[in-house]
Amino acid sequence: MVICGAGFGGLSAISRLTRAGMRVTLVDGHLYSTFQPLLYQVATAGLNPGDVAYPAGGFARRYDAIFRRGELAAIDTASRRIKLSNGHDMGYDYLILATGVTTAFYGIKGAAEHTFGLYTRTDAIVLRDHLMAGFERLSVDSGDLNVTVVGGGATGVELAGTLAELRRTVLGATFPDVDPARVRVRLVEMAPHLLGPFHPKLQEYAKAQLLARGVDVRLDTRIGEVTADQVRLVHGEDLPSDITVWAAGVAAGPGVAGWGLPQGKNGRIVVGPDLRVQGQDRIFAAGDIAVNPDDPTPQLAQPAIQMGRHAAEQIVRLEGKQATEPFTYHDKGTMATIGRRSAVVQLAGGLRLRGTLAWFAWFALHLFYLLGGRNRVTTLINLTYRYLFWGHGGAVIVGDEPVNAQELPVASKNLVLQTVVVHWAKPNCPQ
Ligand SMILES: Cc1cc2nc3c(=O)[nH]c(=O)nc-3n(C[C@H](O)[C@H](O)[C@H](O)COP(=O)(O)OP(=O)(O)OC[C@H]3O[C@@H](n4cnc5c(N)ncnc54)[C@H](O)[C@@H]3O)c2cc1C
Predict the structure, then answer these.
(1) Helix (H) or strand (E) holding 334
(2) Atom 3, ligand 1: which residue's CA is nearest?
(3) Domain membership of residue 235 as a residue range
(4) Which terminus of the chain, N or C, has less C-beta within 10 A?
């Protein structure tokens, strides 16, 4: 069995397969699994990048699986082999694709070049360092810092709310010579409301909480173009924007087209009711990358977890000469946080929470779903510190000068390669 993608979908498939005695190889382009729901905390200097990253090899070994680093580049369905972008190839009896999605710019001019994404650990570090450099610049020049968050879904709301709090309470303590009023946080959403899937009362609450934190919330507003220092709205207005964050949509990465599988809306791989890729007997897709056009699931952690488990169960059934079963998503509810002691929770039974109670529920659930004891402890300490010592100068985790991953010096790249070689050469790690 080969599982591509060490996110929620891929990891949740492993244990069922190894328990059934199958040999499982987990493949991911990174050495770690990223806990995306807390990336905005890394970007706003509340968590360390390591708090939201867990070693994929360690997780695989915990369930007697093997980990290989590499990006899936091609699938030869006739010979049942996959090729990785690092040149390695491997055979499979069954393949589960759980490679997630990435930022979609919908062809908006300048968006790819001039906005920051928030989909990977690197995205979060790069954004944090640019924000910190922006704050620092205010202490030496007379301008303002305009931050625009595009997209009023959970990611956009969480980021805009936390940035506004950062400005109001933390900035003053960390950069005492900067007037927080010089930092402007704006949230732009093309729909008439925030947080699309939530009840209208929770949407209104989220909007009111953002306004109370001083966020300039623009609903019914479409971005037409992004430049290095502006966002141009479709209705003709130009708004200054030194840092523009794109949280407005997701699509399959460009590499997926090379796999030769059917793709649906936003490039997602089309699956049938049992999660097998359309036209394929031995390839399943799970999580954000997969879509059953007749019964699409939201692109969230819970559907990915349930789909990963379901795909694994179907493989066990097929090996036992049993027919596969259709996937049914059990919606447990959804939540989003706006800031300190402010969140919205909507449970499947119709129960709705908001405010402090919802915020504690959000806090507890995120700790529960984080992988690894160390990550839970450090996240608990860092977030507790952040929210207890609010307004204290040490409540931000500072980074360095902004750096792009592509611009790392050759020496750093070599170090990364050496780390991979050491990992692969472990004596009890089968090749
Ligand atoms: C900022 C942010 C906040 C979010 N907040 C929430 C939230 O609060 N609650 C919630 O339920 N959901 C949230 N989500 C959505 C949730 O994180 C995703 O729905 C979930 O991660 C999907 O899981 P997945 O396994 O499909 O993909 P992912 O978790 O994205 O994992 C995909 C994995 O595949 C790897 N990969 C990609 N391409 C390849 C390749 N070619 N070869 C090999 N490996 C590859 C990646 O490195 C990655 O490890 C958030 C998402 C983001 C970006």
Answers:
(1) strand 333-339
(2) 37
(3) 111-248
(4) C
Residue 26 CA to ligand 1 center (angstroms) comes to 15
Chain segment 97-148, per-residue pLDDT in tens = 999 999 999 999 999 999 999 999 999 999 999 999 998 899 888 899 999 9
287-307 in b/e burial notation, b at 16+ Cβ within 10 A? bbbbbbeeeebebbbbbbbbb
Q: What is the pLDDT of residues 168-221, one digit of tens each?
A: 877 877 888 889 999 999 999 999 999 998 999 999 999 999 999 999 999 999
Residue 75 forms part of a structural domain: yes
Rounded to 5°, angle at Cα 266 from 264 and 267: 55
Which residue among 99, 149, 246, 337 is best mutated to probe the pocket of ligand 1, counting the most ligand atoms within 8 A of its Cβ? 99
CA 169 – CA 171 distance, rounded (Å): 6
Which of 228, 248, 268 finishes a domain?
248
Tell me the residue ranges of DSSP E strands in 189-299: 216-218, 223-226, 230-233, 238-240, 243-246, 250-251, 269-270, 283-285, 290-291
Give the integer Cα–Cα distance in Å for 112 and 108. 8
Return the amino acid letter for 49: P
Which residue in the list 113, 136, 158, 189 is annotated as catalytic?
A: 158
How many domains does the chain contain in total? Answer: 2
pLDDT digits (tens, 9 = 90+) for 234-261: 998 999 999 999 999 899 999 999 999 9
What is the Å distance from ligand 1's center to 175 Cα?
A: 34
Q: Are 244 and 115 in the same domain?
A: yes
Q: Does the annotation count 165 as an active-site position?
A: no
Q: Are residues 224 and 115 in the same domain?
A: yes
* Distance between CA atoms of residues 94 and 3, nearest Å: 9
Same domain, 27 and 138: no
Same domain assignment for residues 133 and 241:
yes
CATH code for position 273: 3.50.50.60
